[in-house]
Amino acid sequence: MSGAGKPDFFYREAQRLGYVARSAFKLLQMQKQYKLITPGSSVLDLGCAPGAWLQVACQSLGPLKNGGLVVGIDLKKVKVPAEHCDSRVQTVCADVMKLPRAHVRELSPQQKGFSVVLSDMCPLVSGISSKDAALSLELGVQALNLAVGGAALAHCNNEIQTEESNDGATIISDDNGVLRRGGNLVIKLLESEDVQEINKICKPLFRKASLLRPKATRSSSREIYLICQGLQSQAKT
């Protein structure tokens, strides 16, 4: 079976350590390499089901006395895992593709935005590589637009063509994203030539943009993560 061996290791480790899914180790690796979440951070987790990233994000906030917040949004209703999570974690059942940016910002501390935005959103896979990559890109662009706002939209209009949704709606932006200046953004994508295009868009918006294929990714998967660190002042927040 493709991906046998290593996936079994991460599955067993997730069970042993109390994580609800093996995907916890992807964010744990990002944390170790990039230190995206610091004690007291405010974290927005897009596509948070089944909750493994909520667990890692909460752990990364440090002790309860340090404060901080983790908000997960998903199409599915997600119960906050009992292990590795505390009262700082909450979830919202909603379609982030249709959720107004202002409503998302209201979920942040003092409604001033989040210091970290994580997007592990993934489309329903059809098995048609080009179609799946395009749908993944659409979700990635939406996450970028939600995080950065008008600055990202201006770049996206020049660099990436996005299709209208079934109801005829297009991605609409106001001037302000929900990611604070200096904040970090993680976007899951499916490998295609468009990955480099969205990477090019992010480079001038952030202090650093990197691509990572975590060790816990199944060998049969084409997923890759775009990790953006330090939102620049030119992207208005």
TrEMBL record:
The record's listing under Gene3D superfamilies reads:
Vaccinia Virus protein VP39
Q: Where is the Ribosomal RNA methyltransferase FtsJ domain?
A: 19-230
Q: Which GO terms describe its molecular function?
A: rRNA (uridine-2'-O-)-methyltransferase activity
Which domain of life does the UniProt lineage start with?
Eukaryota
Going by the UniProt record, its keywords in alphabetical order are: Methyltransferase, rRNA processing, S-adenosyl-L-methionine, Transferase
Q: Which Pfam families match?
A: FtsJ
Q: Which InterPro entries match?
A: RNA_methyltr_RlmE (IPR050082), RNA_MeTrfase_FtsJ_dom (IPR002877), rRNA-MeTfrase_E (IPR015507), SAM-dependent_MTases_sf (IPR029063)
The protein depicted here goes by the name: rRNA methyltransferase 2, mitochondrial
| Species name | Pyrus ussuriensis x Pyrus communis
